[in-house]
Structures are given as structure tokens and as C-alpha cells.
Design brief:
The complex is a heterodimer of chains A (572) and B (188). Chain A has 572 residues and is mostly helical. Helix content of chain A is 63%, strand content 2%. Chain B is built from six helices and five strands. Classes of the chains: A mainly alpha (572), B mainly alpha (188).
Chain lengths: 572, 188
């Protein structure tokens, strides 16, 4: 056993040790039961008072979604203008310029929807003001939005028949005051005491040992990086994200960052079970997701530690694995580990460059984002999985010839239609987007944009195609990682991925919450011998099969053209 | 709708104060107690800052240990990797050239002695570390350029080898800047 393997086993164990009890806590906390964080109540009441909000006002699903959409639209508009005029605002010690309209459009959508695709570089594209007041603010509130919507869905199934799915503001604020903010403080302190800068000092200049003059970008990064992971956001302070030695200075911070991005997604799944008083359902979903995660994780580790066959052919030793785009203090094993989790949970932060990972690792990364329901982003992971559940219930119902039911409510045409539309949305957006990009690349190579289409790709052949496919997939999945070789700061990519991100965020939130709201209103049917039980291993496997079949059918052709073709063309 | 807009604006303002002022300023104040006062940990020689402990720098002279290839030339104003795919022919040519250069300056090496990280670019372009194996292959060259005993340099490398976290987790590594600073001090 080597220490790199021990490192990821420890990280994995820590995720479970923290994530599982956190799930129980969240269920109690959101249900309004007594918890130890009740000391926050006076603070929350103060915030409600200042905001004119009554947190006990019941909401039906439409009112709930209206409140959610309203505040999200406000952030979109407000953030767009601040990003464009950031050069004229304070807290800009490095004198960075304002954003172009298309870049501001892309960036603000990206952060409002918890995607954090970044077409700028943190060191030169934003100021300390926009990093904190816009981007870090959105790290918190976009995660809280996702969590609040998931809890709204949970609430719909807690009671037998109800119109009330809870108060959006209540869940939203509690997600911040009792989950994201306290954990961020802990993580930010760990980071800053391990070498991540946290002061407001601007760039520094020094003369190196060999006599070169070097500038170093710094800034209040620890605060930002903490919530970037806890909120499954992923947008980095520095351009190189968590592979940057100030953003992720040592192995301890690496463990801290990977664990902190997994605990809330794990907790939310178990929270579902505890919240609706069907503990077993939560654990079955957890099991399916964990099997899915491991099936993506193990081969990724295998292909990264195996090294690059083309470099092996040159006679070079790859004792720990492939090292291009990776850092020595982290190592290929922990980079492969991170790359799987960051793609399944929609964080999209990276501790090594995905563009330089092996062909098959790229395949697993893409697949993780396409499925987007193995744990998934803060709150939205459960919402995505819920759609798979409804499809699985429907198909099982057809197989046994009974009206499909979910948790005591009949699933009828209207709900299945919504679920089907949401399921079809992702492949449609990803495939159509990639097809258009490939078309522009081939036929309009010299279009007069900031980056000419003919210069978009950093790699030739199949890998170049993967760069475009990855960008569209990442945008739709609200992941935010990239095959960063792609020249993406130009009108085409800023507008197209902006559109994909906003559709890929709000429709998969509105759909599940609407289905839950519609189901909750229906008459409750008590369980009988003929009821399809959804908290069994059999049904778990059924859901897993549905996920597999849906995604294989949707994405195999595109994946065959990208990473699979690349794999077969590598020297053996 | 109108009431939602007013509520949205008001809660956004209140949360901005908490999340964008109180929280980061509090962490920043706590950070003052850390090594480097939250500005990043620096390394000084004779009272002059010669670099950041966590930021790699370019070493090309024969009397220094070299770090990894960087596509940004260790310019820490930014950060980036090569983003080259594993089978990219131009990239493989670069790697091949790096191997040749390395062999030229270390004629005593066989190809199989060269660890991959010495011929591949890091993700950030600022990787401050190399593996102990990558330091060992350079000992002979450095010792010769400085007129030092191989044993003395080897001892210094061993002394600067940082073991995995708690001896158990993650890779062992050598911080190139710290090692080179120690080398300079050894001469005196």
C-alpha cells in the first residue's frame, strides 16, 4: 500500500464520517426541531425583520418557485452591471479592467446558477470587490438556493396531503446561517493557517534566488475557497483553481477541500430519508449513488496512476502516474480521486488540469457530469435524482401493469411528462450545443471574434472535439470545470454556455419541485400489498438501470467520437 | 411579485453585510496570527525576501536544483497548465526535447531514472515541489557545479525531504526553493 492510496482512503472515510451525521442534523434543523444551532435564532429573526420576511408563511409550490426566481433574477441583473464596471469601483489593488458585456453575461449566470464556469482568470479578470461582493456572495446564496429547493421537495412528501411545501426564505436563510457559514469559517481558518492568503494585500514583487523579478498574485482567498467547496461551486480565486499552490498549499488542505465539497451532497441524500420519516429510502438512494460514484472513481484512478502510454514509450519512469497538469504535493492518485468527485457533485473545482488527463479519465469525467445525479450539487443533486426516480417508478408501473405511485401519491401523465421533458433537456442542450460549436469551428473558422474559431482548440483530433463536448456538458450540468485549453472567452462560447447554464439550472429545479407540489396535493393512498415499494434494493437497482440506459442511449455516440476514439488511437 | 422584489433586495443587502464584510474581515483578522500574517509565507535570505515558500520559481543555473517545467515560466502574476492532451503530437515533441535537455546536463542518467514530473508541466505552472527521486538525479550535477561532496548534497536533500502528512497520507516531496536556499548557505 502506498501513501497516496492511504491519502484518498482517509479522504473518503472522512467524507462519510462527517456527511452521514450531517444528514441527520439537516433533517432535524430544516424540520424546525430542536438542534444545537438554535442559538442562531436571534440573528435569523433580526435578518427577517430587516428584510420584511415572515418565515412562517406557508407557500404552495408556485409561490415557492416565484420567490426563488425573483431573487435569482435580481442577482443576475445587479451582478452583471457590477462586473462590467468593476474597474471604476474600489478594492481593485491590481488595477484590473471591467468585463466586456458578453463575458459579464457569462460570468454572472455562471455564478448565480452555481456552475462557476470561468472564462476569465481570477488574477487578472476580477477585482477583490467583485470576487467578494459578487462571486463569493453568490457562492453562498446559489448553494442555499439549491438546498432550499430540495428541502421544499422533501417537505412535499413529509405530510400525507398538503399544499404547503414550506417557506422558501426560511429554508434559504437557515441553509446559510446554520450550515454554509459556520462550516465556511472552519474551513477558511484551516486554509489560512496552512498558507492560503487571507489578507487584502495586492500583488507582491520580489527578486528570486536567480535574480528574476517576479510578481505574485495574492488576496483574501481563503474565505472564498472555503465556500467555493462547501457550496459545490468550484470557481477558483486563482486561474489554476485548486492546483494553485496558494489555493491548495499542502496535502492537508487538499483533504479539507475535497471532503468539504462532498459532505453536503452526501448529507442531503440522507436528509431526504430522515426528513420524510423514511430512513430506508435515503439509504437506498445513498447506496445507488455510491455504487455509481465508485464505478466512475476506480477506473479513473487506474488510468491516471497507470501513466501516459506515450511517455512510457519514451522510456521515462512514471512511478506515481501521469504528471502532466498535476502537482507533486498532491499526486496523480489524489488528482484522479478529486476529478471524479468534482464532476459527479458539480463542484467543478480542479486540483489538476482535466484537459491533460488520460483519455478514459476524460470519459469518466464527462459521464459523471452527464448523469449529474450521483450525489450532485448542493440540493440540486437530489432534485436531479428525483427525476430519475419518477421515470423509474413510471417504467416499473408499466412493467407490472399498475398505476405508478410514489410515496403514496399517484404519478400520472402530467408528472411523467414534466419528468420526461427534463430528462430529454440535457442531451438536447449538450448535443445541439456541441454540434453547433463543431459546425462553427469547421465552417466559420475565421469569424472575427476575440478568439477566432479556428484557434479555439488547444489539441488536434478527437481530443479537440472532447474540449468542445466537455465545455457544453459542464455548462449544462452546472459543473464549471473545463478542458481549459479551449479558447472560450469570446462571443460564441460566452453566449452559448450562458444560455445552457441558465436552462440547465432552473428547468431541472422547477421540474422536480413542480412534480413534488403536484403529487403532494393528491389524495394519499395507504400502502397495500400491490404498492410498488420504492425503498427496496430491487427498486434501487431499477433506478440504477434507468440511469444507465438513459445516459448510455443519449451520450454514447458523442463519447465515442471524443474520449473513446482518443483512447483507441493512443500508442499501446 | 412586488413584495417578493422588495424582500429580495432587502435580504440581499443584509446578507451582503454578513457574508461579504463581517465574514471575510473576521477571517482576515484571524489570518494575521498565521505564518506570513495571511499574506502568504515568504522566505528571506539576509533580510531580503527571495520568494514564497509555496510558489515555485525558475531555476536554470547548474548550481541549483531545478523544479518542474512551467508553461508560464513561473510568472506568479498568473497561473496555468499546458492543457495538452495525452496524445497531442506537438506536446509529445516538447516532452521529448525536455528529456534530451535533461540528459545533456545529466549525462550520467539513464532514461528510466527520470521521473515523469521533470519532463511534464505542472497544473498551476507554479509547482514548488519535486519528488525525492527527482532531487536525487540532480545531486551529482549540483555537487560538481559547486565543488561540493556528493555526500554533503545528498545529506541536504534528505534533510529537506518532507515526508507524507502524518507519515501516512499523500506523496513525499522536496521544496525546491528551500533546498536551494540551504545550498547557498552551505557554501558559506
Amino acid at each position: 500500500m502506498n501513501t497516496e492510496l492511504f491519502g484518498i482512503i482517509a479522504s473518503f472515510a472522512l467524507m462519510l464520517v462527517i456527511g452521514i451525521p450531517l444528514g441527520k442534523y439537516l433533517a432535524k434543523m430544516f424540520a424546525g426541531e430542536k438542534v444545537w444551532t438554535d442559538f442562531m435564532k436571534p440573528v435569523e429573526n433580526g435578518i427577517y425583520k430587516l428584510s420584511g420576511i415572515n418565515p412562517n408563511e406557508p407557500m404552495d409550490w408556485k409561490q415557492f418557485l416565484k420567490a426563488m426566481m425573483c431573487i435569482n433574477l435580481l442577482w443576475l441583473v445587479y451582478g452583471f452591471f457590477v462586473l462590467m464596471y468593476q474597474d471604476k469601483l474600489p478594492l481593485n489593488p491590481d488595477g484590473n479592467p471591467g468585463m466586456t458585456a458578453d463575458l459579464a453575461f457569462n460570468t454572472i449566470i455562471s455564478f448565480v446558477v452555481n456552475c462557476n464556469l470561468q472564462h476569465y482568470s481570477g488574477e487578472s479578470g476580477v477585482t477583490y470587490l467583485t470576487q467578494h461582493f459578487i462571486l463569493m456572495f453568490l457562492h453562498f446564496v446559489s448553494a442555499a438556493t439549491g438546498i432550499a429547493c430540495a428541502v421544499g421537495l422533501f417537505k412535499a412528501f413529509r405530510d400525507k396531503t398538503t399544499n404547503d411545501i414550506g417557506n422558501f426564505w426560511n429554508y434559504f436563510l437557515k441553509a446559510i446561517t446554520r450550515l454554509l457559514l459556520p462550516l465556511s469559517i472552519v474551513v477558511a481558518l484551516i486554509l489560512t493557517f496552512n498558507g492560503t492568503p487571507s489578507s487584502y494585500a495586492g500583488k507582491d514583487k520580489f527578486i528570486s534566488l536567480q535574480g528574476d523579478t517576479v510578481n505574485v498574485s495574492r488576496g483574501p482567498a481563503a474565505q472564498f475557497i472555503a465556500i467555493k467547496h462547501l457550496g459545490t461551486n468550484g470557481g477558483g480565486w486563482f486561474g489554476a483553481n485548486s492546483s494553485h499552490p496558494l489555493e491548495n498549499p499542502n496535502y492537508l488542505t487538499n483533504i479539507t477541500e475535497i471532503v468539504s465539497q462532498m459532505i453536503i451532497p452526501i448529507a442531503m441524500v440522507l436528509c431526504f430519508g430522515y426528513f420524510i420519516r423514511r430512513k430506508k429510502l435515503g439509504w437506498v438512494i445513498f447506496g445507488v449513488m455510491m455504487i455509481g460514484a465508485l464505478l466512475l472513481l476506480i477506473p479513473s484512478i487506474g488510468s491516471e496512476t497507470g501513466g501516459n502510454p506515450a511517455i512510457a514509450k519514451m522510456g521515462i519512469a512514471q512511478p506515481t502516474g501521469a504528471m502532466e497538469g498535476k502537482e507533486v504535493r498532491i499526486g496523480p492518485t489524489a488528482t484522479a480521486f478529486w476529478s471524479t468527485f468534482t464532476t459527479i457533485v458539480s463542484t467543478g473545482s480542479v486540483n489538476g488540469m482535466h484537459d491533460s488527463t488520460m483519455a478514459l479519465t476524460g470519459l469518466w469525467q464527462l459521464l459523471g457530469m452527464m448523469i449529474n445525479g450521483f450525489f450532485g450539487g448542493c440540493g440540486v443533486g437530489v432534485l436531479n435524482y428525483f427525476i430519475y426516480l419518477i421515470i423509474a417508478v413510471f417504467i416499473s408501473g408499466l412493467m407490472v401493469g399498475r398505476t405508478p405511485e410514489f410515496l403514496g401519491h399517484k404519478v400520472e401523465a402530467r408528472e411523467v411528462k414534466i419528468a420526461a421533458l427534463i430528462t430529454l433537456l440535457s442531451p438536447f442542450l449538450i448535443m445541439a450545443g456541441t454540434a453547433i460549436a463543431a459546425f462553427v469551428f469547421t465552417n466559420h473558422g475565421s469569424a472575427n471574434w476575440a478568439v477566432k474559431p479556428s484557434a479555439w482548440l488547444n489539441n488536434p483530433g478527437f481530443h479537440g472535439f472532447s474540449e468542445m463536448l466537455y465545455e457544453m456538458t459542464s455548462a449544462n450540468a452546472n459543473n464549471g470545470s473545463g478542458f481549459e485549453g479551449l479558447g472560450d472567452n469570446n462571443t460564441f462560447w460566452n453566449l452559448s454556455t450562458g444560455l445552457l447554464m441558465i436552462l440547465g439550472r432552473f428547468l431541472p429545479i422547477i421540474g422536480p419541485v413542480a412534480i413534488a407540489g403536484l403529487l403532494a396535493k393528491k389524495k394519499y393512498i395507504p400502502e397495500s400489498a400491490g404498492t410498488l415499494k420504492t425503498d427496496t434494493i430491487t427498486f434501487g437497482l431499477m433506478t440504477f438501470a434507468v440511469i444507465l440506459v438513459l445516459n448510455a442511449l443519449s451520450y454514447f455516440p458523442a463519447l465515442a467520437l471524443g474520449p473513446i476514439a482518443e483512447f483507441f488511437s493512443m500508442p499501446k | 411579485m412586488k413584495s417578493n422584489i422588495v424582500k429580495s433586495i432587502r435580504i440581499t443587502l443584509v446578507l451582503t453585510v454578513i457574508l461579504c464584510v463581517i465574514y471575510p474581515v473576521a477571517i482576515s483578522l484571524a489570518g494575521k496570527l498565521s505564518k506570513g500574517q495571511g499574506n502568504g509565507e515568504t522566505i528571506t535570505v539576509n533580510g531580503k525576501v527571495v520568494g514564497y515558500a509555496n510558489i515555485g520559481q525558475s531555476f536554470t543555473k547548474p548550481q541549483y536544483f531545478w523544479g518542474r517545467p512551467s508553461v508560464i515560466g513561473y510568472n506568479a502574476a498568473g497561473s496555468a497548465g499546458s492543457n495538452k492532451g495525452p496524445g497531442n503530437p506537438d506536446y509529445l515533441k516538447d516532452v521529448s526535447n525536455r528529456i534530451d535537455t535533461l540528459l545533456k546536463y545529466h549525462p550520467y542518467l539513464k532514461r528510466a531514472d527520470i521521473p515523469a514530473e521533470m519532463v511534464t508541466a505542472s497544473g498551476s505552472g507554479l509547482d514548488p515541489d519535486i519528488s525525492p527521486a527527482a532531487a536525487k538525479i540532480q545531486i551529482q550535477r549540483v555537487a560538481k557545479a559547486r565543488g561540493l561532496d556528493v555526500e554533503a548534497v545528498t545529506a541536504l536533500v534528505n534533510q529537506h525531504t518532507e515526508s507524507p502528512l502524518a507519515g501516512l497520507f499523500g506523496p513525499a516531496k522536496v521544496n525546491v526553493l528551500k533546498l536551494n536556499v540551504a545550498l547557498d548557505e552551505l557554501k558559506k
